[in-house]
Amino acid sequence: MAIYLFISGQEIFIIMIVALILFGARKLPDIAKGLGKGMREFRKATDDIKREFNESTKDVQDDIKDVSDTVNKNLKG
Question: Among 2, 13, 29, 60, which is most exposed with the fewest C-beta within 10 angstroms?
Answer without folding.
Answer: 2
